[in-house]
Specification:
heterodimer, A: 301 residues, mainly alpha, 13 helices, B: 271 residues, alpha/beta, Rossmann fold, 2 domains, 6-stranded mixed beta sheet, 11 helices, disordered N terminus
Chain lengths: 301, 271
């Protein structure tokens, strides 16, 4: 009996920690959504592009830390060119136009990444084993992977720093103002260019971190692009514009998909974690379309 | 001493023509001056070109695919053609856009603070600036923690003006501050605008459809129609001008008139 409860908790904790990885990817989406009210379909490609470049730089002989910094620089360049070549010419166009542009941008990034670094699957070794931590296993009897635990800690760190950036700094205020009304923001002198550059760079860094954690588990490969789209149900549940929403949404998706897989999966012949999150998302769309933490659409009559 | 920067007119618009999307002519010939420290009203109906004139000054036209194709705009001795909105704010010219345009998801206080974005202020300086604004707009202080999107139209107009004033402008462009507000609130807002002009020394160019209240609170007025200045003069002389009275204030020599009366009369005359 006791061992069954322990097993349940093990599945749950594993799911929650895996969920933090979804949260990380979702964070990248939220950043851009908050500043430009656009769902950035290129976020998955950015994850792939970032981590593939990171691994590529390491293969070229750069040490881990240096390669990480160079990749951050590269992601800022990507942000800069996106602002310059895509966003600025499309300024004041409808959100749909921007959405289509991000889909195109995604393909460009995927293509660039593979053209530069090749198509084969790489291994990324962060030096953190994807094995249970014996210390925890011995004392509580739950098997938790060290990689999962690290991912959770990293995600928590990123979330706290972004939340501070958004709510406590002048730049954050500017970001939120631009998200609400770019025209009014520019009328009081907030430079839209800088804000966009900053947001896309930040989203690039988040993509790199998420890519590293995913890549360490699943290998650095093209499938990361699709994996990143798991952020979609996360965002529907959490709310597109909410950082806490991305976190809680990720945790909900991570834990339910693992628990459902283990307990209900067998009745469906397994592998339900691929689609169960989307069922959950549809349920949310019907009951609470703005998500758990999303900003209510304000409409004065 | 040769360059004192003390221009008599803070704003000079000379014969501008404005075209949207390269084809739509919005303004064909507008010239106007705003003397430093004064309130000037730009009057006219829908589509007369009031907003377009203001936006060509604040350089917000570009974001709406509009362009000044002829003439010149000089603000504080400097041509504005090559500048962008954030340059203009740095030079001390801020526009309050038509329809308030508050940041709906930000609190009232965050909205007001956001106006100081271009200034390098410490936290305590921001707080003292904030208090200064709350003195003009005590209502906003009461609602400081509310989400701006849920405040009333009048409060939103106050937020928009206070937000613009946080940039410590030399000149404000107000686009239809009376839009969609109850007459009492309009009065309240114009009293504050006048007070800001008096105490802060900010020059104001305001676009209005509400000719009466605008002229009562300005020094000078321009009336534009279909992109051209039709009439200009001191606010007092315009208020007493027969044509202005009849067309814009609804008062004729026979007393107060409304649009329905004018229609009836034309019918009678025809019959």
């Amino acid at each position: 009996m006791g061992s069954e409860i322990l097993f349940f908790f093990e599945v749950l904790v594993g799911g929650l920690l895996a969920g933090t990885m979804y949260s990380l990817v979702a964070l990248g989406f939220v950043l851009i959504y908050k500043a430009s009210a656009t769902f950035n379909f290129a976020q998955g490609a950015m994850v792939f592009f970032a981590v593939l470049s990171f691994v590529g730089f390491m293969e070229l002989g750069l040490p881990f830390f240096l390669a990480f910094l160079v990749t951050i620089g590269l992601m800022v360049v990507v942000g800069l060119s996106t602002e310059r070549l895509v966003l600025r010419p499309l300024m004041n166009q409808s959100e749909d136009t921007l959405l289509m542009a991000t889909i195109g941008l995604g393909y460009v990034l995927e293509g660039l990444a593979q053209a530069a670094w090749g198509v084969e699957v790489r291994r990324l070794d962060l030096g953190i084993p994807d094995f249970p931590i014996m210390f925890i296993a011995d004392s509580i009897g739950i098997f938790i992977s060290a990689l999962d635990l690290t991912a959770g800690a990293v995600a928590a760190f990123m979330v706290i720093s972004l939340a501070v950036l958004f709510t406590q700094t002048k730049i954050g205020l500017g970001l939120r103002a631009v998200a609400d009304d770019p025209g009014a923001a520019s009328s009081i002198g907030i430079p839209l260019k800088h804000i966009m550059l900053l947001v896309w760079s930040a989203a690039g860094v988040v993509a790199l971190v998420a890519g590293c954690l995913w890549g360490a588990r699943a290998g650095v490969q093209f499938a990361l692009v699709d994996l990143a789209l798991k952020a979609l149900p996360v965002l529907i549940i959490g709310g597109f514009s909410s950082i806490p929403g991305a976190i809680v949404g990720g945790l909900i998706i991570g834990s339910t998909e693992k628990v459902l897989e283990v307990y209900i999966g067998p009745f469906f012949g397994g592998a339900i974690e691929g689609w169960a999150p989307y069922v959950l998302a549809v349920f949310f769309l019907l009951k609470r379309p703005e998500g758990l933490f999303g900003e209510k659409i304000i409409r004065r009559v | 001493m040769s360059n004192q920067n003390s221009y008599e007119n803070i704003l000079e618009i000379k014969n501008i023509e404005v075209v949207y999307d390269d084809v739509i002519l919005a303004i064909s010939d507008v010239s106007l001056n705003v003397p430093d420290g004064s309130i000037v009203a730009l009057l006219g109906g829908n589509g007369a070109g009031k907003s377009t004139t203001l936006k060509s000054v604040s350089t917000m036209l570009a974001s709406e695919r509009g362009k000044v194709t002829k003439g010149s705009i000089t603000y504080n001795g400097q041509r504005v053609e090559k500048l962008n909105p954030s340059d203009m704010v740095n030079l001390g010219l801020v526009q309050v856009l038509e329809g308030r345009r508050c940041f709906g998801h930000l609190t009232v206080e965050e909205n007001v603070i956001s106006g100081a974005y271009t200034r390098k202020l410490s936290k305590s300086e921001i707080n003292s600036e904030l208090e200064r604004m709350y003195n003009y707009f005590p209502r906003l202080k009461e609602r400081r923690k509310s989400q701006a999107g849920f405040t009333s139209g009048g409060e939103q107009q106050m937020i928009a003006v206070a937000r613009a004033m946080m940039a410590k402008p030399k000149m404000l462009l107000l686009d239809e501050p009376s839009m969609g507000l109850a007459p009492q609130l309009v009065e309240e807002i114009f009293v504050i605008v006048k007070e800001l002009n008096d105490k802060e020394g900010v020059s104001i160019l305001l676009a209005e459809q509400n000719t009466n209240i605008a002229l009562r609170n300005s020094d000078y007025g321009y009336i534009i129609e279909t992109g051209q200045v039709m009439l200009d003069g001191s606010a007092k002389s315009l208020l007493n001008d027969d044509k202005v009275k009849e067309f814009y204030l609804g008062i004729s020599s026979e007393g107060r008139k409304n649009f329905r009366d004018v229609l009836k009369e034309t019918k009678k005359n025809k019959g």
